[in-house]
Amino acid sequence: MKMRQRALWWGLPLLTVFLVAQIIPFFYSAWYSLLDNAFSRRYIGFENYGRMFENEYFRLAMGNTGRFVLTAVPLLTVTALLLAQCFRQARADRAVLLPVMPALIPSASIAIIFGHTFAAEGIVRFLGEGGARYASLVVVFIWKNTGLIFLALLSAMYMVPGSLYEAAELDGAGAVRRFLSITIPNIAGTIVFSVVYAVMQAFRVFKEAYLMYGAYPGDSVYMLQHYMNNHFTKLEFQAVASAGTVFTLLCLLIVSFAGIWGERPGR
Length: 267
Fold this sequence. Notes:
Elements: H1 3-32, H2 47-54, H3 56-90, H4 101-104, H5 107-117, H6 121-158, H7 162-170, H8 175-186, H9 188-203, H10 206-213, H11 224-233, H12 237-262
């Protein structure tokens, strides 16, 4: 039996569980979003989606979520990348777990600490109330998620052959040139994975925002999951199903694009 066929048979139970627990509910939810309500179940096509895109709070949530992804994900990736490079250069193997510690702290504790910190009068006066709340969410996101991405990037850096750095150093390449010309190209696949992981985590930042500022946190940090959660509490399940379908398709689009980009020749 070929290795690929053997791996398929071994993975079949997991694929079955994934199909039952994830794929089937998604398609049922997508179908549910095309019905008028939970009782008559009359097919109305994409009317729920039309009302959703006309809703000002959905547009606000989509805009805030997109802005957060475009702001926080690059900052997180660069922070983890530079931290991994510093650890690799310093050979600080014994301290490698220190950056991971924030991920082990409960989100409720983090929310209390950063919520009070960014509610200080000086910060609010400088950034404004909305800006302070947004900044606090970005800082919490980076502080909590840097460790795992740092580990992935550092592991990839250790896989780069040392002979490449030695040859570049003999040719007169400085530390920055070696980092940009050797390290980055050789860990590009891991960087793509890290960005995708960071994007998925950014979509889940609702928990921290909810703990710090509640279900209605203000216009600056009202995220897509706030919209879904608030409609769920109002028993407006069609709105939740429509938003959830759009949310899932958006995630699949990002992952597919990252996969295609990561498989380009030379990567």
